Amino acid sequence: MSVSQVDVAVLGAGMVGVSAALHLQARGRSVAIVDKHPRPAGETSYGNSGIIEGSVIEPHYFPRSIASLARYALNATSEANYHFSALPAVAPWLWAYFRQASPERAAVSARGLLPLIKAAIPEHDEFIAESGAESAVRRKGWVKLYRSQPGWAKAQADAARARKEGMKIDEFDEKSFAELEPSMRGPIAGAMLMHDAVSVQDPADLAGAYGDMFLSRGGRHIVGDARTLAESGEGWVVQTGEGPLHAREAVIALGPWSDDVFRPLGYSMPLGVKRGYHLHFAAEGNARLGRPIYDADGGFVLAPMRRGVRLTTGAEFALRDAPPTPVQIDKTRAVARRIFPLGAPVEPQPWLGRRPCLPDMLPVIGKGGKHRGLWFDFGHQHLGLTLGPASGRLLAEMMTGEAPFTDPSYYRAERFA
Question: Model pTM?
């Protein structure tokens, strides 16, 4: 039995896929989302720091200092961990990532990222208002915390550049920061309050609210296997639990699993994966956090969430589907307890997520050049929650022939040819 025909099948129900589906729907397209999970945010969008960012002016580059590289090579830092057995597979991608961090190439990435960042909160705000999700967000910004003087000096220089782009950032010394976040403790060199950001109490809940809005407007969310995508006549077909779904156009928005679909179709893009973990904790006594706190020296975030204080880790470089090895949680927990009174975990195991990354830390947004009606929207690195609605708008403008709100050439798939 056929599920029937739609204009567009969006493969992937994370923040990126749901946002693209909403923008296409708003432009008159009939849309079905296909995902292995029955609800949005079943994978990468389920776990992150919960920050919708508006103050990033540069992507997360590969570190190039000798000291940092030495620490990473020894697995001696909580910021990064790697599986030695995975190095033969991930080393080519790491080398490409390192090369893209050169000053010249990094400048190109920064130019490509900035218009998406500037559009991120306005696009989210429209979805938040329309979905009735305002109670799920906080508008208190987020904090970058520095415990070392060298890190603080660099942060002040970075903040000066960000202010030139119109971003609002306040600086705090140890005393004034204690007034902002009374439950935080320990000596610090300084802190930056990034005002141009919104945080959420649960990223999965926000994606779910957007998904419910999509359904209420006539969209469909169908459980199926995106890997079955194939050309069919003048369009595409994908197998679902309700039968084959036919669509004139297809969007691959599967995050770290996108290569499972685009590679069999003949596309070669260096999609890598940074794995990461989170675990929720109770706070001791009356301790509270008003907003997410990023410890720049430890590479982790403490974020107030609906289920408790979420402790996130930095990046783990491993095979995408390798078993979890949450050693970074233990490392970061010890440091985090020195700066905030974390209590006991409120869940038995850390959650493992996978961030989809291209070496230049820009997403792929646009047309698949080898096929008619095939489109890409993936590779949003650490910023999938942030950039989903903005990239969805850009993709929908391209698909429907509207003038794109920013130059899409930065995100073309062919840039890796």
Answer: 0.96
